[in-house]
Amino acid sequence: MSLVGIVGSGVMGVGTAQSLVQSGHDVVMVDVSEEILDQAAAELARNTRLSRLLARPGAEPAMTTAGKVEYSVEYDALAPVDFVVENITEKWEQKLDLYPVLDTVCRADVCFAANTSCTSITRLGSLTSRPSQVIGMHFMNPVPLKPSVEVIMGHHTSTATLDTAKELLSTMGKEAIVVNDSPGFVSNRVLMPTINEAIYLVQEKVAEPAEIDRLFERCFGHAMGPLQTADLIGVDTILHSLEVLYEDFNDSKYRPCPLLRRMVDAGLHGRKSGQGFFTYQS
């Protein structure tokens, strides 16, 4: 398995591509416009160069992206790939359009991994003629620095598909932590309500974002507080994830905080926009 397709070139798509290239794979990256792909190529080259500069003395030098990534706005470019990792947004309408196309373009033996934090893998599998070959791979950001991946088994996902996914992750130096399909899986079913509640605390002026995060960092020993985590993931992504949980469980405990919606409407999406709960310089 040497040629991997990446669909969606946002933060997670670029991070996954970087991790694949640095572990010796070739990549075909597909997105909807040349402009978006140009930005992804520049970010991928910059991130790879930075990782080489920051590598520990004596460490194996990270591979460059030169000649290792093909960029395309045409899904037909995925015809020769051995495996696909889908990284588009959590919006169901977009996934509804995408998966039947992948099913048509890709070889019958190719497995599809959804890099999703909430969307049901079983439901995604139903969009294809190969539900046993659809699996979840919930990578965490930044992908190259995270040693483990939440791997999700859909209702029809086969053991052979799981073995293939584990093999790919192993070549990337990552451990697979396998869970069963459920909205939000394990990580986001715990993380999203935590972040949402932290946003309610800001809205109710119980504490400032810095104080909330400092409590988690100093008292619980977390590397990053919930609001910095929200900025890193993307405030808009947090909202999408909560909306999926709220819709799927029909439980008010997942109702997105009004401040979260207002921030998304205002374009305060976190690190990628330069402003979220904290301010970032490009």
TrEMBL record:
SUPFAM superfamilies referenced in this protein's UniProt entry, alphabetically: 6-phosphogluconate dehydrogenase C-terminal domain-like, NAD(P)-binding Rossmann-fold domains
Query: Record-annotated residues binding NAD(+)?
Result: 8-13, 31, 90, 95, 117, 141, 272
Q: Which residues form the 3-hydroxyacyl-CoA dehydrogenase C-terminal domain?
A: 184-280
Query: What is an annotated GO biological process for this record, any one?
Result: fatty acid beta-oxidation
Record Pfam families: 3HCDH (PF00725), 3HCDH_N (PF02737)
Q: Which InterPro entries match?
A: 3-OHacyl-CoA_DH (IPR022694), 3-OHacyl-CoA_DH_NAD-bd (IPR006176), 3HC_DH_C (IPR006108), 6-PGluconate_DH-like_C_sf (IPR008927), 6PGD_dom2 (IPR013328), NAD(P)-bd_dom_sf (IPR036291)
Give this protein's Gene Ontology molecular function annotations. 3-hydroxybutyryl-CoA dehydrogenase activity; NAD+ binding
Where in the chain is the site Important for catalytic activity? Answer: 138
Alphabetical UniProt keywords: NAD, Oxidoreductase
Pathway involvement of the protein, from the record: Lipid metabolism; butanoate metabolism
Domain of life (superkingdom) = Bacteria
Residue limits of the 3-hydroxyacyl-CoA dehydrogenase NAD binding domain? 4-181
Protein family according to the UniProt entry: Belongs to the 3-hydroxyacyl-CoA dehydrogenase family.
According to UniProt, the name of this protein is 3-hydroxybutyryl-CoA dehydrogenase
